[in-house]
Write a structure and sequence with these properties.
The chain has 100 residues and is mainly alpha-helical. It is built from four helices and two strands.
Length: 100
C-alpha cells in the first residue's frame, strides 16, 4: 500500500476529515491529514454542523468528498466488522479519493 501512496504527487496527499483519529494513516503513508477541531472554542460542533462545514470547504476549495472512513468502532457487519477490514476499507477509500 505504501507504494500506491508514494506514487501520488505530494500535492495529492492532503485529506480533510471531520475526525482527527486518522493521524496514524498520515504518519504511515505520508499524508497531510487536516481535521477541524470545532467551530468555536466554547463547544464542539454537532455532526450536522461539521457536515455542513465540510461541504462548504469542499465547494469553496474545489475538493471532492471521497467517501466514508471508519474511525474506532467496529460494526456488526460490513467493511468495518474487523480491525483489518476497517483498515483496508479506509486505505482503499483514501487511495480512491486521492487518485481522482
Amino acid at each position: 500500500m505504501d507504494g500506491a501512496f508514494r506514487a501520488l504527487p505530494p500535492e495529492h496527499r492532503r485529506i480533510l476529515t471531520s475526525h482527527d483519529a486518522f493521524g496514524y494513516l498520515g504518519q504511515a503513508y505520508r499524508l497531510d491529514i487536516l481535521a477541524p477541531q470545532g467551530l468555536s472554542t466554547e463547544r464542539e460542533p454537532s455532526a450536522a454542523e461539521l457536515a455542513m462545514l465540510l461541504r462548504q470547504i469542499a465547494e469553496e476549495s474545489g475538493a471532492g468528498i471521497g467517501g466514508t472512513l471508519y474511525s474506532d468502532a467496529l460494526a456488526a457487519e460490513g467493511p468495518a466488522s474487523t480491525y483489518l477490514g476497517l483498515y483496508r476499507h479506509n486505505v482503499a477509500t483514501l487511495l480512491g479519493a486521492l487518485r481522482r
